[in-house]
Amino acid sequence: MSMPHRNRIWIWVGRLTFGLIVIGIVAYFSAAGLDKADKLASVLGFLLALAALVVPHLFSVSSGDGGRGSTSSAGNASHGQIDARHAQGVQINQSGGNTQHNNFAS
Asked: Counting CB atoms within 10 angstroms of each CB, which of 1, 36, 66, 96 has the fewest?
């Protein structure tokens, strides 16, 4: 899934939407009173926190390696050593110097 191209129109649409949401919240606080609004905000905050904990478990995790099952990982590398044999077009910065390793396999 690709990100939409950012341009001035979409940025202003986002700003306008945010402004309308803030105005709507202020209007709700004024109409309902702060006590009722505080109770609703507490319940909504709880539901959002619960959703943030549950939602990642509802989607499958993509390994990002096309299902090949990479055998090298940062956890397996010794301190200061990186295994870039299976990397494609990666630039590694070590101690201020650049090491570039390109491997474009068919």
From this structure: 1
